Amino acid sequence: MKYYTKVNNEEYEIEIDHENEIMVNGETYRIDFQQLAEGGLASLLINNLSLEAVVEARDENWEVLMLGKLYTVKVQDERTYRLSLARGLSADSGEGDVKAPMPGIIIAVPVAVGDEVKQGDKLVILESMKMENELRAPRDGVILQVKVNTGASVEKDQVLVIIGEQEAEE
Fold it and tell me: Which of 101, 93, 42, 46 lies closest to 71 in space, CA to CA?
């Protein structure tokens, strides 16, 4: 089965033909993936490298927190991907919320209302479970609202920043 995946603006073609093997852009990887019972935690073994990640569904995307970095991931099967290309659909417009993937304390907010950001720009640094996690812009846009300050405690799924379109100047 073939899938098309977009991870923080990078596109990947993934083929799953064998139980413990996948191909990503033509390169083969041996994998073992186990979803653990607690809070979206996943255990990954990729070519004998052990990783842990927090994986959570968000709207039409997935958010993956791994090695202190948050990744926004969109996965489509081949049919859905080709249909969206044919229709010219894009998820890179409209307003978007950046939410806390887990409870924690805000360490820094290096953006302000009105700032233009590019996909992947750092928006918030959240400390959780003694790790600093960089929350990055899921797409290009303008900061419409910053709903937290440095030092604030936040809950899982709390909206931290709202990104929108640049308004046309008159």
Answer: 101
% helix, strand, coil for the chain, step of 5: 5, 55, 35
Task: Identify the structural domains of the chain with CATH numbers, from first to last.
Answer: 2-87 (3.30.700.30), 96-164 (2.40.50.100)
Q: Residues 159, 98: contact at Cβ < 8 Å?
A: yes
Cα→Cα distances 18→1, 4, 144, Å: 10, 17, 45
Q: Which residues contact 30 (CB under 8 A, 6 or more apart)?
A: 20, 21, 46, 47, 48
Percent of the chain past pLDDT 90, that is, above it, reads 36
Q: Map residue 78 onto helix, strand or coil.
A: helix
DSSP bridge partners of 53 = 42
**How many other C-beta atoms can be found within 10 angstroms of the C-beta atom of residue 76?**
16
- Does this model's pTM top 0.85? no
Q: Are 13 and 27 in contact (CB under 8 A)?
A: no
Report the candidate in 69, 95, 90, 65 with the shortest Cα–Cα distance to residue 159. 95
Mean pLDDT rounded to a whole number for the chain: 84
Q: Does the pLDDT at position 85 exceed 70?
A: no
Q: Is the pLDDT of residue 63 over 60?
A: yes
CA dist., res. 11 & res. 24, Å (int): 10
